[in-house]
Amino acid sequence: MSFADEQAIRERLLADGHSEASTVGDVAVINTCCVTNEAVAKSRQAAARAARTHARVIVTGCAANLSTHAFAGLPDNVRVIARRSEDLADAVSADVGAIGCIQADHRLDRVRAFVRIQDGCSFSCSFCVIPLVRGATRSRSAIAVLDEISRRAAQGHKEVVLTGVNLGCFRDREAGLTLAGLIRAAGAIDGLERLRLSSIEVNHVTPDLIAAMRETSVVSRHLHVPLQSGDDDVLRAMGRRYTIGQYRARIEPLDDFNLTTDAIVGFPTEDERAFGNTMAAVAAVGISKVHVFPYSPRPGTRTAGDDPVSRQVKTDRSARLRAASDAACRARWSTRVGSRDVVLVDRPGLGYADDYTPWLVDAPIGALVPAEAIGVADEGVLAVVAA
Ligand code: SF4
Fold first, then answer.
1. pLDDT recorded at residue 108
2. What's this model's pTM, rounded to 2 decimal places?
3. HSE toward the beta carbon, residue 352, CA cutoff 13 A
4. What distance in Å separates the CA atoms of residue 325 and residue 333, rounded to the nearest whole number?
5. Candidates 35, 118, 125: which one to mutate for ligand 1, based on the most atoms within 8 Å of Cβ?
């Protein structure tokens, strides 16, 4: 979602006639995160650093929306703009000011575009600050989303990522479309080469969604489904809406997909047995990459006052879960050796196959190249461009 917000700000400033500086410019926009205490601290450090080298610094994003207090005491050239994401690009544009020459064709990074279909969340997970900073769920119209996907494809973006805080809540009641219908409609857009979902709650992984993903040829065989914990008692205390058995049942039909997830370690009610259940669940479900978040109490949430698990225990559990994730990734990569796939190269020597596994291949950035897997390295599948 932050990528989508940044993309909107960049595009708006380019349309206003500004240009991007590769190192230091006149204005820096720092788009912040508040998912953990550490994220807020890093956001503040970034704003302070930028204030030393730029005439003006604008601070946006979730940490700005949560509390301007986090940025108190920074130099006078730092300005915090707290806005809903829909209004953010306009607010930054008004603050920076347009310059005379309006650019007709403002092209962004051509490889991948993030298209927001929905924002906000009306769930109430006990640890989560996102509903406070992004508000209740609301959807863009399907026509606006499909128009933007067409525009991105015409601009040369090879991959579009459908993005939202709670993607499965997307509804366009007038058009009669849910996420599954939107995927089918997007699949018919000329020039779209690859479509991916950013992340989806397991309750929204329905048979209809799976059918839509399978029958739409441009959809990647990858799904990111937050787990958070593999222990039913912890899931209940977190206010999640599933048991681990329900999670497994929903995911089971996707056994050929690359499954990735988020997990929180050191949640207040997580003891060693509960953490062991998370380790076991990750292995049993067949998840590859786990994004591990040590629990961090967030202001305004139901667990804001609870943080009994020590830092050392969180660090230790995080390391164990990351090691299991690394091993699971390597195991999945090994199964690809000898196979072919189409790789979207997005940085020097690295791209992503259709199932969003990283492939190390030497090809121009932005190219979609057929590749053959010849081995495994620490960073991903070793591959060569195939004839
Ligand atoms: S963690 Fe829960 S409350 Fe937070 S955005 Fe996800 S579903 Fe919504």
1. 56
2. 0.91
3. 16
4. 12
5. 125
Whether residue 89 has its Cβ less than 6 Å from ligand 1: no
Q: pLDDT tens digit string along 228-247?
A: 999 999 999 999 999 999 99
CA distance linking residue 238 with residue 278, whole number of Å: 14
* Cα 121 to ligand 1 centre (Å): 6
Asked whether 162 lines ligand 1 (CB < 6 A), one says no
Ligand 1 pocket check for 34: Cβ under 6 Å = no
Cβ burial 174-184 (10 Å sphere, 16+ → b, else e): eeebbbbbbbb
- Summarised one tens digit per residue, pLDDT across range 91-115 is 999 898 876 555 545 555 678 899 9
Mean pLDDT score, 252-271: 97
CA distance 266 to 309: 6
Structure-block tokens of residue 87: 């209004």
Q: What is the mean pLDDT of residues 216-235?
A: 97
**β-strands 340-347, 350-352: how paired?**
antiparallel
Given CA atoms 83, 88, 90, 91 in this order, what sign does their dihedral have? positive
